[in-house]
Amino acid sequence: MADFDMIALIEATKRGSALDDRAIAGFVQSYMAGRVSEAQAAAWLMAVCLKGLDDGAASALTAAMAACGETLDLSDLAHTADKHSTGGVGDKVTLVACPLAVAAGCTVAKMSGRGLGHTGGTIDKLEAIPGFRTDLSAKEFRQQAARVGLVVASQSHELSPADRRLYALRHETATVDSLPLIAASVMSKKLAAGASSIVLDVKWGRGAFMGSADEAARLASLMCHIGASQGRAMGAAVTPMNQPLGFSVGHVLEVREAVETLRGDGPSDLEALSLELSAKMVHLSGAAESWEAARDAVGEALTSGRALAKLAEMVRSQGGDARVLDDPSRLPRAPLVDVLRSPTDGRISAVDALGIAQAVARLGGSRKGREAIDHRVGVRLLRKCGDPVEPGEPILEIHAPSTELLEHAKTIAGRAMRVGDAAGPPKAEFEIRWVS
Ligand code: URA
Questions:
Q1: DSSP 118
Q2: How does pLDDT run across 150-176, given as a tens digit for each residue?
């Protein structure tokens, strides 16, 4: 990149001019090689944040970021599908949708993250299962993908190392909230992870990073454009995250709820979303010829119990105690469980996902500011938006490690749960909007 001129790239971006793909690739390569200073990179990120990038430039940035590290070649595996959620509260969909997709014909070799901010991460949830290993070697990861068809491990540090550095710099420079930068960050890791089809769940609302459904749809459509420009089959669901998904928030509680869902006894929103996303994985990966056939296949994987058996196979293969799937009472439990009661009669008008996440964090269920998380703690909603309630009726359950934290969490969760007029809107159906 002898002729690469970083100052010219910053100038052009600052003016909102069309950018040359080679200049963007030059930036990523030169930054990683130490030939672009942190100050220049920060200036460029701020210019992107203020002026945006067109879709072509966002694709070029993503491809360059993906290419600067390790890229997995999964081309020897059949019908590879990956899934990514932009993050929410109570989002245990990976634990349900991936076994469903695999039992219906896909291969899912997935690298997942830990909790980010107030949102939970799949790796932290899986580590709530005694013995479960998420730090697989590249060889173990591949072998399990070929043998079981399903593997979920923590993300390799070698995947998109440019994202690791740029993400840290974005945090320091208030440039996180830029659609093209978020899209490039997420998609560079997904492209490097090698699946031929990628299904995204882009969440909006109080418990999500995107505030509105329209903003989430713009991000979804940009990520689909980027993936398609790199030859991947793409689908993105735009889904609400104003109240938590399902009833349970907290690692052990979420594992239990995922297993209940795979037994056909889960919350309707979690089941609906998991079936829809897994059907999309099956269809896009070519494991089924039509959308209808894909939906039938995941429906059968659920009712036959084959998806639950697939999850158990993955848990055993990664060293976990699969007996917890048959008998969840073997999972670790918090010593104290108490309920919060409705102060009045009426209808639940809001269950603020962010507030519930903050209550779980206060109990020790998030990594923020701590060495380790407490997998046992959490909140189980007994009522959700639109449900009628009587005065004194339990509306949520708190699983706590101590009386002190129980009381703190009760106050925070109490503020998140609002009871309105009995004539308020009844329970609404969970809304899934597809973007491609
Ligand atoms: N998650 C990511 O991986 N990157 C972002 O920029 C935002 C959320």
A1: T
A2: 999 998 888 899 999 999 999 899 999
